[in-house]
Predict the structure.
Amino acid sequence: MNKHFLNFKCKININEISKILNISFDEVLSVNNFSSNLDKIYINDFVPFKDLKENSLSFLNNTNYDFGSISSGLCILEKKNIKFLHQNIIKIPFKSPKLGFSKILEYYVSKNFLNNHSIHPTAIIDETAKIGKNVNIGPYSLVGKRSVINDNTYISERVSISQDCIIGKNCIIQPGVVIEFTILNDSVKIASNSVLGKPGFGFVPNDYDTKLMPHVGSLLVGKGTNIGSNCTIDRGFIDNTIIGKSVMIDNQVHIGHNCIIEDLCIIAGQVGLSGSVYLEKNVRMGGDVSIKDNITIGENSIIAGASKVFNNIPKNSVIGGSPAQNLNDWKKIIASQRLNLKKQRFKTDDN
């Protein structure tokens, strides 16, 4: 952890760690050789495993290390790997070490960074807006008429929330975000400079009198969804744009009007979804994917990075290429093209 930016005073003891990970303190005791005072041991730093030291926490996902040089600190790992660690290292058993480490790191950061909530005097809040308990609203942020900000939400500086928006509990909205015609459910996180709920790119060509059509739909974002920096998500034209629960959206993603993205989808950076794209549950796509309008991607499908999708895709598909197709078929086509190119070069050399 970079102490220059995150020089916190907070300490987390073993009892807190066990509660965060939902494991019993007795389970931690059972895999360690300490008979007393284990509950008084704390952490105040997060480090890679190779830098593990006293009062620091790391995690172990594999066993390709020089374990002899590491003999102190706390480590989250699977039970099967406990035998590799020095007896003085405090072992914390957890089925997914990286996930456990992330949970504790999130708790630590939120306890320090988001613990002091206040409404800055430069914030502009309409008198008809409703602000819940323990809400932070940073400098020069705007909350419009009749908007609702629910409990324990953290709104950073220069955020604009227009009229009638609803922001759920425990949301985190970072600097420069613009929100309108939007309802956020609980625990949504939006990174800096993203724009949510603006009109989409809908119009009917009419020579020099072409205008964007008014958009009278809205944007609905489900619980636990994460939206990265510099994303744009349009509201619906007549119906709503809908983002489901626990959707992970990377930086610089565009989602057009009337898109529906179901729960647990993962969208990497620089993806572009045209209007009315429907991603069924648990779709995962790499960076720089483009999807044509009115396309449906079936649940559990995987789309390789830089693919261009022009047709509906059935569930459980693995696709790639431009135009996107079955990934293995695409790889065979690429291999065949390379082979043909190689043959042509040989013919040229022979001549």
Summary: The radius of gyration is 25 Å. The mean pLDDT is 92. The longest strand covers residues 56-59.
